[in-house]
Amino acid sequence: MVEVKVPAVGESISEVTIATWVKKDGDYVKLDEIICSIESDKATLDISAPKAGKLKLLAKEGDVVKIGAKIAEVDETASMAASTPVIAASETKVASPAAPGSVAEKNFPSPAASKILSEKGVDAASVQGSGKDGRITKSDALGASAPAVLSPVMGDSELKALARATMSQSFSRETKREKMSGLRKTIATRLVNAKNTTAMLTTFNEVDMSAVMEIRKRYKDSFKEKHGIGLGFMSFFTKAVCAGLKQFPAVNAMIDGTDIVYHNYADIGVAVSTPRGLVVPVIRNAESMGMAQIESKIVELATRARDGKITIDEMQNGTFTITNGGTFGSMLSTPIINAPQSAILGMHNIVERPVAINGQVVIRPIMYLALSYDHRIIDGRESVSFLKAVKEMLEDPSRLLLDV
């Protein structure tokens, strides 16, 4: 028997939760085939089979286990035929699509996604994948639902019965209780600590996005053709933030005991919403990157975060954070500081609004910006001036290129 143990996933992590068993007890597994996913308070990690053989599970989904604990065994002496259950002819189902490799196969699910889709009774062919090459991720599977099946001919009585059933389901007074994941508990603790241990204040401004939108419209095709990636808003904001942090270093600093630690680099955290909660992967030395490099890194980190592949190191030691509530339609918010950082910039949705320019009322695409900051280290003058600098660079993006 070959033991399957929980690997070390970080210096400060002593236990994890068994999130999903991709394989069942008694299944035959191949070498390096994913058998389960484990979840810590910071990230999710897949565990692969150390050998080929028959799998024996020693822990259940939802169990909290210590680092180094044995959670399964693989009998490498067992053959595939001995491990595969016999299926009656009446129970035979159509096989799932082969593993990805052909260009035509664009929505092959990951192991965890496949298990979720199977439990829901959802055909993978009906799900649009958001992973690399269109692969269906766990997040896609969690959000998928089986289509309603209607009779080709349905009378009035059947329609009324269906409507009554739908209404009764819609107004159910049932409750559901589930255990908070380790990641969700950590998020809750960090947010409460940030509120309770910082002198947090938020200042607001608005930015006319006309210039940025015009540049994107003019160069998006050539940018994608040259760099193989789309030109988004986040690269403009990241560059503007890096330039602002250079002018106002206190916004890029943090408190350590009775000391203030200043950084001569900008490691920008980008908040990403995942099925397991909000995570903040970090773009290292963003101040030295070009627009294409920033866009590529954001896509890479966001995809890995949503697929549960992000590592702890990729989420630690940022110096400033950007969060974009506008992707969900938020008009205005007061983001909470990502401690021990001292400030966070909140982006919001872009809405055409009437504004006064040179005595005339015109319609412009306006975004509201919010900067939450720790007043213990950042004064009002610095916070307002920093946000104003970001606004001015976005309204005149050429300043980002000229560094003025």
**Residues in helix, %:** 25-40%
Per DSSP E runs of 2 or more residues, the count of β-strands stands at 19
Instruction: From the alpha carbons, calculate the radius of gyration and give it in angstroms.
Output: 25 Å
Biggest β-sheet: count, sense, barrel?
7 strands, mixed
Order of helices and strands: EEEEEEEEHHHHHEHHEEEEEEHEEEEHH
Fraction in beta strands = 15-25%
Q: Which class do the helix and strand fractions yield?
A: alpha+beta
Average pLDDT: 84
The level 1 CATH classification of the largest domain is: Alpha Beta
Uncertain runs: 86-100
Net shape: globular
CATH architecture of the largest domain: 2-Layer Sandwich
CA-to-CA gap between the ends? 66 Å
What is the number of domains? 3
How many alpha or pi helices?
10
CATH superfamily of the largest domain: Chloramphenicol acetyltransferase-like domain
Question: Would you give the CATH topology of the largest domain?
Answer: Chloramphenicol Acetyltransferase
Could you characterize the architecture of this molecule?
With 404 residues, this protein is of the alpha+beta class. The protein has three domains: 2-85, Beta Barrel (OB fold (Dihydrolipoamide Acetyltransferase, E2P)), CATH 2.40.50.100; 104-145, E3-binding domain (Dihydrolipoamide Transferase, Irregular); 200-402, Chloramphenicol Acetyltransferase (2-Layer Sandwich), CATH 3.30.559.10. It is built from ten helices and 19 strands. It has helices at 80-83, 111-120, 138-143, 156-170, 182-197, 210-227, 233-247, 291-306, 380-395, 398-402, and strands at residues 2-5, 15-21, 28-29, 34-39, 44-48, 53-57, 64-66, 70-75, 200-208, 254-256, 259-261, 268-270, 272-274, 277-279, 282-283, 320-324, 343-347, 350-357, 360-374. Strands 9, 12, 15, 16, 17, 18 and 19 form a seven-stranded mixed beta sheet that branches. A four-stranded antiparallel beta sheet has the order 1-8-6-3. The chain has a four-stranded antiparallel beta sheet with strand order 5-4-2-7, with no helix packed on it. A hairpin with a 2-residue loop joins strand 10 and strand 11 (259-261). The longest helix is centred in the middle third of the chain and has 18 residues, at 210-227. It is globular, with a radius of gyration of 25 Å. The N and C termini lie far apart (66 Å).
